[in-house]
Amino acid sequence: MRTRTPRLVAAALAVAALAGCSDVGDAADLGPRTAPGTVTVGSSSSAASRIEALIYAKALRTAGTPVETKLGLGPGEDAAVAAVERGDLTVAPALTGALWERYRPGAAQPTKAKETESENPRAQWDAQFVALSAVLPEGLGLGDPTLALDQPMLFAPKAAPAATLRGCEGLSGAVAVPDGSPKDVSARYGCATGPVVTVADEAAAARAVADGRAALAQLGTLSASAADLVQVADPDGVVPSRAVVPLVRRDGLTVAQTKRLSAIAGELTTADLAAMVVKVESGKRTPEEATDDWVAEHPLK
């Protein structure tokens, strides 16, 4: 089992300083000091959101917490986030970048320091955690963000030379972009690529690369279409991360329960989540079965 570093605890302490909190302990672990009754965990309609919510629910149940689930509240991540804001849910999966856009629309998203050369994606996610925690509406909080990303990124053929956004190496040639996906490729990735070729969907974008009609494809990190391609590296965090994170009502969880949610942070990866999403969307496993399989391999202690 992967172990967690103390970095996010330190980040949360920084949030307390920014917010002028008098109780640093509460800011660090989100926990109110009163034990709640049943915790309600919900999700949007997507397979990814359902899976994430079920993992959070299972983590709480292993700690003896009574949990009610409300899955499939509506399309888009906003449905579950809005339910937490209203108090209809105690916990829901959210995405760090999407939350920033919701609460600070149009503002530049925080990234790690430019001089940092670390390949560790946590360097960016920690910066997001501190800034995002400071701008959440009163009463809301975050558990630790996971290693799982849900966002469009560039993908290249596995046999091609290694491509990276650092120095824009290996990024020449046309980019196949599914209809409805961001088209501002050069601005998004900070690299001058070839022309953008709009295609019908992610499967068509992957085929365009396989057929040689495009050098790169822009695909979601959880897409089944990305299985035969390799993601272009982003060691400097050029693209703001959309990491899966539990959004919680601070008055609905104890310290121990919040820590239980944060235990998932170092375990759930993009590859894990993508594999579960593919199985669910293909009908091979239900969300409950897929998450049972994952928890059996990653005991939530």
Describe the protein.
α10 (270-281) runs antiparallel to α11 (287-297). The chain folds into two domains: 39-114 and 121-149 and 242-297, Periplasmic binding protein-like II (D-Maltodextrin-Binding Protein, domain 2, 3-Layer(aba) Sandwich), CATH 3.40.190; 152-231, Periplasmic binding protein-like II (D-Maltodextrin-Binding Protein, domain 2, 3-Layer(aba) Sandwich), CATH 3.40.190. It has helices at 7-19, 24-29, 47-62, 78-86, 96-103, 122-135, 185-189, 202-210, 255-262, 270-281, 287-297, and strands spanning 39-42, 67-70, 91-95, 140-142, 152-157, 175-178, 196-199, 216-220, 229-231, 244-249. The chain is built from eleven helices and ten strands. With 301 residues, it is of the alpha/beta class. The protein is globular. The strands form three sheets. A five-stranded mixed beta sheet has the order 7-6-8-5-9, covered by helices on one side. A three-stranded antiparallel beta sheet has the order 3-10-4. The model is unreliable at 1-35 and 113-118 (pLDDT under 50).
